Amino acid sequence: MNSYNCVASDVKLGKNVRLSKFINLYGCEIGDDTKIGAFVEIQKNARIGKCCKVSSHTFICEGVVIEDRVFIGHGVMFINDKYPRATTAGGILQTEADWKVEPTVIKEGVSIGSGVTILSSTKIGENAIVGAGSVVTRDVPPNAIVAGNPARIMRFIKEPKESKNAQF
Hints:
Shape: globular
């Protein structure tokens, strides 16, 4: 590790994980051969699979599970609470005891474009593609291409293709 990174002792890194500068990792798990870009934060109880690429300026919060061979574009934001509040009904600053994590699952082979926001309690199916700038508010079926705000199905992939740009 280098002095530009904050990697807590409870982080589980697989073999050949590549970490850029200016990242913050704590309590998470990252699989073999995965690359994490600059200015990325990955919180506790988040899991990233093998052979993934997480681009710069991305935020992966608690409760997010990203399976193998997933591409995450620049500036992707995950949400883990449908009704976030700073304080309790009594006006006291909330703690972890005051809310429940709402999980999100990104299945194998998914590609998520830059600037996407993914709301909590959603699942993006195998090999789906989420267009840049989209807001995912509900589950995405396998092999679907979705885009927009809210993200809507544009069409389905007939045959998943291998990327010619893969560098793993």
